[in-house]
Amino acid sequence: MTNLIERYLAAWNETDADARAKVVAEVWTEDATYTDPLADVAGHAGIAAVIEGAQGMFPGFVFTPGEVHDAHHGIARFTWHLGPAGEEPVVVGFDVVEVAEDGRISKVLGFLDKVPTA
Fold first, then answer.
1. What are the SnoaL-like domain coordinates in residue numbering (predicted)?
2. Under a CB-based contact definition with an 8 Å cutoff, are residues 79 and 68 in contact?
3. Which of 30, 72, 110, 113 is the most buried (most CB within 10 A)?
4. Model pTM?
């Protein structure tokens, strides 16, 4: 599961649109869904657009794995951090994913535990 989380976060960190599309296709199934407080999308194009939007909101920030990760029965949960490289995270999230039989993600349910205040 650690490898899947690393690939998942690599997709969120990929800034080149073509390379990001390739990573999204490798990590998510074609009909995958992604839902969090700010987005509810399906398919590779929708997921790539959400990632691009997050990068636009936090330019230069990087996603890193958090402390919690656990998996069973094709379901995984993990925390992630977003912030300047090597610094305290500005955003902390918690995602629950369903993994398809081919090892790719078919569904993401995301939660935001820490967000910046205005």
1. 5-107
2. yes
3. 110
4. 0.94
The first and second tokens of residue 58, run together, are: 């936090």
Helix, strand, coil share of the chain (percent; to 5)? 30, 45, 25
Cα pseudo-dihedral 58, 117, 50, 79, rounded to 10: 90
Contact between 11 and 55 (Cβ < 8 Å): no
| CB neighbour list of residue 30: distance below 8 Å, 6 or more residues apart | 43, 44
What structural domains and CATH numbers belong to the chain?
Answer: 2-114 (3.10.450.50)
Could you read off the pLDDT tens digit of each residue along the chain, which spans 118 residues? Answer: 789 999 999 999 999 999 999 999 999 999 999 999 999 999 999 999 999 999 999 999 999 999 889 999 999 999 999 999 999 999 999 999 999 999 999 999 999 999 988 6
* pLDDT at residue 57 in the model: 94
Give 116's DSSP letter: -
Looking at residue 2, its amino acid is: T
